[in-house]
C-alpha cells in the first residue's frame, strides 16, 4: 500500500488577494519520500473547513494530514504544538461568521496535541537554513479551528492518522505596503513544507 498524506491549505482571507498556504500547496511535489501527496484547498470558514477535510479523509483514507495556514507577522515556519477547543475571532471568516468565546465542540476535549513529530520537523527545516520554531498557540481563528476539528475527528473515531498544523509567513508580495512586516520566499516555504512531509512520512511508516 502506498502511503497517502493529505495536505490542506486555505483560500485568501482578511482582505488579502492570495494565501501563501495555497501557493505552497500548488507547488508541492505529488510524491514525497514515497508518499502520495493529496492536496485540497479549504475555505477560511468555521465548520465548513473541517467538513471539507473530513469528507476528503473519508474518501482517500490518508495516513497523515498536514494543514498549512498563513500567520501574517510571524517571521519563521512555525509548527503548532496544540489546538484548543475555542473560537474567538478577531475578524469575520469568509462568510461573515465571527464567533466569540465559542467552543468548537461542546463535548470535545479542551485541547489536542499535534501527533506529527513537531521537534524533528523544526530541526530538519533548520538544517535547510530556513528559520523554524515550535509554536504553542495556533490562535483562535479558522487555523486553530481546523487543527482542532481534524484531531477531534481522528480521536473520536479511533483512527490511526497523524495530524498537525504548520503556520507560514506572508509572501514578499503581501508586505509591499506593510512596512517592517516579515515575509519569506515561496521557494523557501515550499522546501520547508516538503521537508516536514518527509519527516512525517518516515515517522508514519
TrEMBL record:
<dbReference type="Pfam" id="PF01470">
    <property type="entry name" value="Peptidase_C15"/>
</dbReference>
<dbReference type="InterPro" id="IPR033694">
    <property type="entry name" value="PGPEP1_Cys_AS"/>
</dbReference>
<comment type="function">
    <text>Removes 5-oxoproline from various penultimate amino acid residues except L-proline.</text>
</comment>
<dbReference type="InterPro" id="IPR036440">
    <property type="entry name" value="Peptidase_C15-like_sf"/>
</dbReference>
<comment type="similarity">
    <text>Belongs to the peptidase C15 family.</text>
</comment>
<feature type="active site">
    <location>
        <position position="167"/>
    </location>
</feature>
<dbReference type="InterPro" id="IPR033693">
    <property type="entry name" value="PGPEP1_Glu_AS"/>
</dbReference>
<feature type="active site">
    <location>
        <position position="143"/>
    </location>
</feature>
<dbReference type="InterPro" id="IPR029762">
    <property type="entry name" value="PGP-I_bact-type"/>
</dbReference>
<dbReference type="InterPro" id="IPR000816">
    <property type="entry name" value="Peptidase_C15"/>
</dbReference>
<keyword id="KW-0645">Protease</keyword>
<keyword id="KW-0963">Cytoplasm</keyword>
<keyword id="KW-0378">Hydrolase</keyword>
<dbReference type="GO" id="GO:0005829">
    <property type="term" value="C:cytosol"/>
</dbReference>
<dbReference type="GO" id="GO:0006508">
    <property type="term" value="P:proteolysis"/>
</dbReference>
<dbReference type="InterPro" id="IPR016125">
    <property type="entry name" value="Peptidase_C15-like"/>
</dbReference>
<keyword id="KW-0788">Thiol protease</keyword>
<comment type="subunit">
    <text>Homotetramer.</text>
</comment>
<dbReference type="GO" id="GO:0016920">
    <property type="term" value="F:pyroglutamyl-peptidase activity"/>
</dbReference>
<feature type="active site">
    <location>
        <position position="80"/>
    </location>
</feature>
<protein>
    <recommendedName>
        <fullName>Pyrrolidone-carboxylate peptidase</fullName>
        <ecNumber>3.4.19.3</ecNumber>
    </recommendedName>
</protein>
